[in-house]
Each structure stands twice: as structure tokens, then as C-alpha cells.
Design goal:
Elements lengths: L9 H5 L2 E8 L6 E11 L2 E7 L6 E7 L3 E6 L4 E8 L2 E8 L3 H22 L5 H7 L27 H14 L30 H8 L12 H142 L1
Antiparallel strand pairs: 1-2, 1-7, 2-3, 3-4, 5-6, 6-7
Amino acid sequence: MDDNVRGGDADATSTERVLKRKVKNSRTNLFEWVKYRCHLGDGFFLCECPTSFDNETVSLQVLLANILSVHPKAASRFEITHATPSGHSSDEFMAPTSQHCSLWVRTLKKAVAQSMQLNSISPTPLALLSSLRPPHLFQTNTTAHPKQSLKIDIPCRNSSNNAMDATKLSTESPSNPTPRCHPDDTPASTPDIQTSPPSLTHPSLASSMHEPDKDSSPPDASSPVLVHRSAVSQQTPSEHEAEEQLGILVRVEGVLKQLETENKLYLQRETQLRHELANLQDSMRLMDVERQELLTQLRDVTTEREEWKAMARRKQADMTQLRDDLQLARDEIRLLTNEQLRLHHRNKDLAVHVQRLDTLVYGKF
């Protein structure tokens, strides 16, 4: 695309802003907001989303000339409706604030208006693809417009050579003048034809349309040569234009094949990434199961440890109780020993008293 085709202001082109796009998740079948880095430039509205696999980017590229409408929605959201080969599609975006949303809406509308003004001079790729058909399909519809005349536009190229040929033909045959072609002149056209016109690019039919009437022309030995030269001079631009259109069709077909190849590669890559994602999800599930088992074992070990701690506390309490009982028994033994010593001393005292009494009683007698 020409570098003069620009979409949006210079600030919007040079500055990238982050928007959230409403995307349907193929795995969960739910809508979610995904961050995209969007900017305007070279007639396109480009949105890129970095992925977590191999640093690849998922991009959305919309031609500004294909944008049908840009209208804001509630809060800081706006919706873009653009034409597609199968119809039209809508994408919803969400800006950080309502000011950013209004700025994006104004910028996109201005860029679309500028692109429409530029495309009024140069056709869009979709219009070019729709207009580039095989030469045998370029026929006018005489049933819908019976009075429409067929006009064959001859582009004026190599005007100096055409002028020289026209001069030679005019000097050799005054009855069959050839029109001179100049860049400023309007294209020549054939008289109106009421029947269905033939293919514009077929050499024999074009020569038959431009042949003069043999009955009305005077007999001349050089007239067939002049007619052939005039037919060749009129057919050459059409053939050149047909070759250009054929070259454009070949290039477009090559680009489409390249896009199909890239699409197949991307689909294979997507399938591979889906398999890798499924494998990673299975690994994550296995790791979750192992983690749950480890957590269960940890809980069992913790419970067992608490039971052992409780048992140790009980044993320690029993040991403390036994120590207290042993101390009480020792105190009782000490008291009993003291009581036994006291009784022993008392028995001794009683024995001394008994002996004294015996001495007193039996000593008188």
C-alpha cells in the first residue's frame, strides 16, 4: 500500500495504547476481556496480543476502508463493525477510562473518513479484488439497460508513437483516420451498440468492431494493411491492460496461496499448542493429585504427632503425680520414724518408773 495512505492522526499513529477486546474463550465457551496493544497506521487498525507460548502474538488487522461504523457503548466501551468476505463482523473494545474511549472513537472516525476520501481516488483491495475478474467476464448487461452504449476506453500510453502512427495512416489513407491520443484528451469510444457486446479483450472481435465497411470504402490496395494497422494500434492498449489485470490476478492468487499456506501453518501450530496445553493441564492435574496426597499424609503425620504429644503430656503428668505421691510417702515414713523414736523413749521412761516403784515397794518389806 502507498505510504501516503495514512489512517488517523500522527499522535494516534505513533502512540500505542492498551485496549481490552471482548473475546470468546474456545475452551470455556465464555466471553472474557483480553488486553491488546492497538494503534493506527498505513490505513490499518492493528491490535496485537502477546501470548505466553514462545513469545508469539495474536493480531487483529482491520482495513480502515472496511470499517462500517464506530459507535460508543456504556461506560468506557465502544464497538467497531467492519466488512468481511463473508459479510460483516463486530468487535467490542474497552478503554481504561471514558476519556480514552471518546478519544479512540473520535480518532477512528477521523481515520475512517480520511481513508474514505483517499479511497475515492484509489480503490480499496476488496474493490480491486471484486473488479479483477477474468477477461471473458467483462460484459455489459443489455437486458437491464437496453439503451446503454458500449464504450471501449483506450488508455493513452506512448503518445508520441501513437501520434506518429496516426500521422502516417492519415497521409496514406484519408478515408480511415486514426484518433490521436494525448494524455490530456478523453479516451476514445466506439459508436453505440444495441446488441450484447462481445469480450472487450478478444483481438478478433475488437478488430471486427473497428473494421470499416468494405462496400462504402473505395477500393485501395493498401486498405487491408491500414485496417490491420489501425486494429493493432487499437488492440495493443487493451491487450496490455488485460496483461496487467492478469498479472494482478496472478499476484493476488499468489498472495492468497501464501496466506492459505500461512493459515495452515498457524492451524498446525495452534493444534500443536493445544496438545501441549492439554499435556500441561494433565501434568497440572497430576501434580494437584500428588499435592493433595502429600497434604493428606502431612495431616496424618501432624495428627499422629499431636497424639504423641498428648500422650507424652499425660505420661509427664503421671510421673509428676508419682513424684508427689513418693514425696508424701517419704514424709509419712519420716513422721512414723519420729513417732517410733518417741514411743521408744517413752517406753524407756516407763521402765525406769516401774523399776523405781518396785524398789520402793519391795524395799520396805
